[in-house]
Amino acid sequence: MNTEAVSLSPAGVKTAVVYADDYLNKLTGEKIERECRQRLDEGCTELIVDFSRTEIVNSIGVSILLGVIDSAANAGAKVVFSEVNENTAELFDMLGVSRHAKIVGQ
Amino acid sequence: MGQTKLLRIEDFKNPNFKELVENKNKLVHTFGALAELGHEVASRSNFQETIRTSLHLVLGSLGIMRGGVARYSRFEHELNMLAVRGLGDFFPLSLELCYEDERQFLTNGLHPIEISQASVLPFFQVYDRTFENTKLELFVPLVISDEAVGALFLGEKASGEPYTNYDREVICAMGRHIGSAIAQRNLLSEIERRSDENRKLYDDLKMTYADTVKAFAAAIDCKDKYTEGHSVRVGKYSEIIGNELGWDADKIEGAAVAGYLHDVGKLTVERKIINAPYRINAKESAELNKHPAVGFEILSPIHHPYTDVPLAAKYHHERLDGHGYPDGLYDRQIPYIAKVVNLADSFDAMTTDRPYRRRRPAADVFDDLQRNAGKQFAPEIVAAFFRGILKELNGEVKDKKFRKLLGREYMEADGLAVSLRTSLNSMTPTSSLTRIKAA
Ligand SMILES: [Fe+2]
Ligand SMILES: [Fe+2]
Question: H or E element: which one contains B187?
């Protein structure tokens, strides 16, 4: 996983992009969660999780993303799931994940 | 899962097709999680990781925001958290149960309990605030084969909707997997604990046995005032030989015990025969020569942790050439341990003062042993014994056993090491039997 440098937009929103890749679906996916928490600790106010390289999201992936959502909510930050494919978007819809994060399709 | 429906052709003509498709996706997703959970539990990988993965799978399959898995300790009446997600830093690591709680959970079985409707139980009263603060909704006692092994704590669903019957079925199925994993782990810990206990018990027994053996040796040696400490020394020499023969620790210990007990039969021989300050007559000799057989009779009914201890007592006066007693056995008919003890016994007899003669000089004794290798003694056992002595003379061992047992001046006679090495080099490692034939 790599993280793009935190960028400061003109509006004063501090955004960090984290790539979900395919670690997400295993126990190793917890490091994405840690990465997000670190960004939040650094004062990031908008977390973008990029799914462009993520084919499928399984239950472990969902659980880890819910952890990201929870951390962001506690830090008062916004969460965006970007480049989400159709199947994954459907899954997020079905499980209510989309109520907590903005889903942006491919 | 009784609630789930399989899709049929006519379903596709159904106006609620979208809902059905969604149901199908849901099924695929939860079945995937269940399959993975089953696989994870069966994989017997690291227990902690299995539990953490299991929690992810439960939460992720139904979109549950937070939760935890606990293991139940029956002895401490505690639920110890094994994995938690989203419960914050203040959630307790262990939660206490009382008898009533445990009884109720067992009656309830592996089914989700709505926390908000369970306030009659002490458990939910005690942790009322904790559960409220962490937004926990369901508590699932993990009951496996009528035994509480743990619990699941589950928070709100991401969808904000209440748990459906379908959700509960999925949770039960997953709970059974997780419960089995915990039960399996408990069983393993129990087995480990018991084998630890057994090991300790065995060590204790061995110690008791060793003490008994030493007490016996002391009793045997006590009877013969001229050969005080004989059994103990024979035990030590046998141990040295076993060590030089490359035996494992247990076998070496067995050799020592065989040495300690080889003369146990003398306990029944009259004291005046044993202590006779002269060469005993034929009748007395016959009486004394019964001691190997008597020793065997004393030792056989006892269960020894090492084999051959009774046989060592019975045959420690046999000789390779068949001229020994009680049975006049030849070379390979003689148990190996008896040959070891025989050499140790003879060495001690030659190197200690007897009522009717002084001990012989070390060089003389070694010469005797070498000359009798292949006649009385097994040559490789003599060689092993020589190697052990040489190592001490050359300063290769810290514990100077021979010096302690025989005295410094006795063991450090001039040229002893050189003559020992010469003897050792001249001894051919051939079988003792072929030597006898050649002679
Ligand atoms: Fe004897
Ligand atoms: Fe003896």
Answer: helix B165-223
Residue B53 has its nearest CB partner, among A27, A99, A100, at: A27
- B173 lies in the same domain as B282: no
Q: Are residues B246 and B347 in the same domain?
A: yes
What interface predicted TM-score (ipTM) does this complex get?
0.90
Task: Give the CATH number of the domain where residue B21 resides.
Answer: 3.30.450.40
Query: Which residue is associated with the tokens 């067995």?
Result: B254
Joined together, the tokens standing for residue B255 give 């050799």
pTM for the model:
0.62
* Span from the CA of B432 to the centroid of ligand 1 (angstroms): 22
Of A27, A58, A90, the CB nearest to B32: A58
Give the Å distance between the CA of B392 and the centre of ligand 2.
Answer: 24
Q: Which of A31, A33, A55, A62 to mutate to test the interface with B (most CBs of B within 10 A)?
A: A62
A79 three-class SS = strand
Where is average pLDDT lowest: A60-69, B12-21, B317-326, B336-345? B12-21
What is the topology classification, in CATH, of domain A14-105? Answer: Transcription Regulator spoIIAA (3.30.750)
Q: Which residues, in sequence order, are CB contacts of A98 under 8 Å at separation 6+?
A: A89, A92
Strand partners for A82: A50
Could you tell me the residue range of the domain that residue B263 belongs to?
Answer: 204-434
Q: How many domains does chain B have?
A: 2
| B331-365 confidence digits (pLDDT tens) | 999 999 999 999 999 999 999 987 778 899 999 99
Taking an 8 Å cut-off on Cβ atoms, the answer to whether A63 and B56 are in contact is yes
